[in-house]
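For the sake of transparency, this paper describes our internal protein records without simplification. Because each token names a local backbone shape, the row as a whole describes the fold. One such record is reproduced below, unchanged from the form in which we store it.
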Amino acid sequence: MSFGLVVLAVDPDATDVAVRAMAVQCQSLHHPEGELNERIVGFYENLRARYPDSPPYDHDSPWMDMPLNIGIDHISMHLSFSERSTPALQLIDRLARRYDLTIYDPQRDEVTRPTDVRAPEDPTILALIEE
């Protein structure tokens, strides 16, 4: 079982409707091409430093589909619906805030902006991320 997330380089003030529309366009065959957004590159490099999406794969990898789908302004990922994804989700959230990116969860139809207030992070999970 898996679930998907899309991390987007969209204006943080974009409406939820605009974020959803961008996420749909990023999954379509008609996505614009061009230079990768620097924020997406930084996010991806930091994320895959901890959770590689190319061989060799770690036994604790949260990814259900590899490599991750990266576009000029987004990264889409499918994660395992299990505890092994918990530290990855916290890292995704932390990196999205660092790089001023918006997260879209299509299962919940939920938009999370970099400036949204979050619950405090679990110190045990933080230690796993820092390893």
User: Anything to note?
Assistant: The helical segments are 16-27, 38-50, 86-98, 123-130. The two ends are 26 Å apart (CA to CA).
